Amino acid sequence: MLKNKNIVLGVTGSIAIYKGVELARKLSREGASVDVVMTEAATKFITPMTFRSITHRPVVTEMFELTSEFSIEHVSLAKRADIIVIAPATANIIAKIASGLANDMISCVTLATKAPILIAPAMETNMYLNAITQENISRLRARGVKFVEPISGTLASGAEGIGKLADIPEIITAIENILQLNNDLSNIRIVITAGGTQEPIDPVRHIGNRSSGKMGYAIAEAARNRGADVILVAAPTNLPDPTGISVIHIRTTKEMQQNVSSLVDKSDVIIMAAAVADYRPVKSCLAKIKSGKQNLALKLTPNPDIISGITGKILKVGFAAESEDLITNAQKKLEKKHLDLIVANDITASDSGFDVDTNRVTLIEKNGEPESLPLLPKSQVANVILDKVVKLLNTAKNSKVKK
Ligand SMILES: Cc1cc2nc3c(=O)[nH]c(=O)nc-3n(C[C@H](O)[C@H](O)[C@H](O)COP(=O)(O)O)c2cc1C
Predict the structure, then answer these.
(1) Which domain holds residue 216?
(2) Which of 19, 112, 213, 342 has minimal Cβ neighbours within 10 Å of its Cβ?
(3) Same domain, yes or no, for 322 and 292?
(4) Number of folded domains in the chain?
(5) What is the pLDDT of residues 183-205, one digit of tens each?
(6) How confident is the model at residue 73 (pLDDT cuts 50, 70, 90)?
(7) Atom of ligand 1 nearest to the CA of 42
(8) Which residue has a Cα nearest atom 6 of ligand 1?
(9) Given 6, 130, 209, 329, which residue is catalytic?
(10) For the packed helices 48-55 and 17-29, what is the interaxial angle rounded to 10 degrees?
C-alpha cells in the first residue's frame, strides 16, 4: 500500500532505535521510498550505514554536509515528503519541535514541511509522564501532529512502565491511516458501545464493573480512521472524547439500550464492546442509605439484553469477557444472541482485558473456527476486529447481489 510514497523517517537517540531499523525495513519492503534522517545522538547508537543498507537511500546526518543529496537545499526533504515519521522520538526532539527549534536536520525538516507529521515517542516512564513532556505532546497534538502512543512493559532499564516504542505494525497502520490508504469502511455507519454501565443503588453508590472503555474507544478510533461514520455510546470512563466521532454519554444499561435502539435502523454495524451490568437494583433509593449494623439485602433484577433485542439487517458483533471455559461460553453466546462475530477475552490474565492497553482475544465468526490472536495493543486488536467486519460486510453484499 505504501508503493511510491515518500517517507522521511527521523530517528533519534533512543535505545529503541533498533526498532527504527525494523520500521525502515518494513516500510521499504512495502514499496515506500524511505529517507532516513538521524540526529547526532542517534548515530551513537547505530551507524547510518545500517539504515543505508536497508533503504538503499542516502542517510542524512548533517545539516551542513556538502556530500549529502539533500544538504544544499535543506528543505528539499520537507518538500518531497508525503509524511514525516519520527520513530523512535526522544523527549528532546519532541521538546524541540514543540518549541519551533530547527537546529538539527529532523527539527528543521519538521518545521519546514507541509506534510503530515507522525511521532512515536520512546523514553523512560518518568520522562514520558513528566508534565513538560506531556505539555509538549499536547501542544503538538493541538497543531495537528499525530502520535502513536508508547506502550507499557519492561523498559531498557529493567523497570516496568509506560514508555516503550509502539509496535511496528501499529506505527505502519498509523502511517496508512494518515495517508488515507485504508478507507475500507467509508459509507459505513457503525454504532459502538464502550465502558461499564452503572446501576444506582442510591444517589451516592452504584453497581459497576472494572471496564475502562479502552477497547471500545480503540475500535471507535480505528473505525473512524478507516472512514466509517462512528457513533460511540459511552458508559462512564476516564477517557477523553475522540475527535471526529459522535459520542453519546449514558450511565445505565437501560439508557444504553434506549440510545442503541434508536440508532440501529440507520446503521450497518453494531459492536457491543461495553461491559453492561447484567443486573440492577429493583429499587434505587432516592435518599442516601444510612450506615448501620444490620445486614443489608440488595434485591437485583436482570437488565435487558441489549444485543439480543436487536434484529434486522445490521451486522452484530459482541464481546464475551469470561473467566472460565472461554471458547465454549463465547460460542454459546454467539448462537444465543444471533451474533455474526464474537470477540472472546479471558479476563483472568493481568495483561489482557480490563484497564490495560493490551488484549489477548479469540475471534469466532458465525459457523467459523475460533481464531486466537497473540497479546496485542488494543488499537491493533481493534483493526483485526474491523478487518473481520469488512470481510463479513462484503460477504453479505455479495450474497445479496447473487440473490
Ligand atoms: C543509553 C541511552 C539511552 C537513551 N534512551 C533514550 C530514550 O529512549 N528516550 C529519550 O528520550 N532519551 C534517551 N536517551 C537520552 C537521549 O539520547 C538524549 O536526550 C539526547 O540528547 C537526545 O538527542 P536527540 O533528540 O537529538 O536524538 C538515552 C541516552 C542514553 C545514553
Answers:
(1) 189-402
(2) 112
(3) yes
(4) 2
(5) 899 999 999 999 999 999 999 99
(6) low
(7) 27
(8) 14
(9) 209
(10) 20
